[in-house]
From TrEMBL:
InterPro entries: AA_ABC_transptr_permease_3TM, ArtM/GltK/GlnP/TcyL/YhdX-like, Ectoine_EhuD, MetI-like, MetI-like_sf. Keywords: Amino-acid transport, Cell membrane, Membrane, Transmembrane, Transmembrane helix, Transport. GO terms for cellular component: ATP-binding cassette (ABC) transporter complex. SUPFAM superfamilies: MetI-like. One of its GO terms (molecular function) is transmembrane transporter activity. GO terms for biological process: amino acid transport. The chain crosses the membrane at residues 20-43, 153-174, 186-208. Belongs to the binding-protein-dependent transport system permease family. It is found in: Cell membrane. It is a multi-pass membrane protein. The keyword Lipoprotein does not apply. This is Ectoine/hydroxyectoine ABC transporter permease subunit EhuD. The keyword Transmembrane helix applies.
Length: 221
């Protein structure tokens, strides 16, 4: 039994929650992208202890559920270190960012491995420092081909944000749940949430594919 009047009354709340969801998605992706790059570079370090330590951390994070990690950050960590207590929003951002940085590190790795060996040798011949080699030669060539894959992970992070309701972040799904508990109507809130997730995901997918075609056309040219 669908009631449009109820939907129109509820829609402003859901759109407001959608804004929080998008903020968490984009912030989490930025953290994942930056930290993932550091992990990828660290995994190529000539220091074995550093490489093995980073590899162990990456495998641990990838082998444990995101929900458990978010719970640990929000509930357990402040019990051990009271000064580490932060808001649900930033806990969610850190949780999403750290978790998916381990996946993006592999994406970066594939891009870095795709840079021809001659580029490394040319940088060495020109007496470039390590910083110059990475920033001026390697990373510009390594990142551009993997941008579409990174875009796909942005979509994945967006679809994972409902997990953050477990730490009381009032995102899209929790807003719908609260509305359903107040009105005892579940059909409209959850349906609208599903439609919003579908629309945003389709828009993101379209933009990622558009970007991929543009990059492929650039390389083909």
């Amino acid at each position: 039994m669908w009631k449009w009047e109820y939907v129109w009354d509820l829609l402003p709340q859901l759109l407001s929650a959608l804004r929080v969801t998008m903020y968490a998605t984009l912030s989490g992706f930025v953290v994942a992208a930056l930290l993932g790059l550091l992990l990828a570079i660290g995994l190529r370090s000539r220091f074995a202890v550093l490489r093995y330590t980073i590899r162990a951390i990456v495998e641990f994070i990838r082998s444990t559920p995101l929900l458990v990690q978010v719970f640990s950050l929000f509930y357990i960590l402040p019990m051990l270190f009271p000064s580490a207590s932060i808001s649900a929003f930033w806990t969610g951002v850190i949780g999403l960012g750290v978790h998916y940085s381990t996946y993006l590190s592999e994406v970066y790795r594939s891009g870095i491995d795709g840079v021809p060996q001659g580029q490394w040798e040319a940088a060495n011949a020109l007496n470039f420092t390590k910083t110059q080699t990475w920033t001026k030669i390697i990373l510009p060539q390594a990142i551009r081909p993997v941008v579409p894959v990174m875009g796909n992970y942005l979509i994945v992070i967006f679809k994972e944000t409902p997990i953050l309701m477990a730490i009381t972040l009032v995102e899209l799904l929790l807003t719908a749940k609260n509305a359903a508990s107040e009105s005892y109507r579940v059909f409209e809130p959850y349906t609208v949430v599903g439609v919003l997730f579908l629309i945003i995901s389709l828009i993101m997918t379209y933009l990622v594919r558009l970007l991929e075609k543009k990059l492929n056309g650039k390389y083909a040219g």
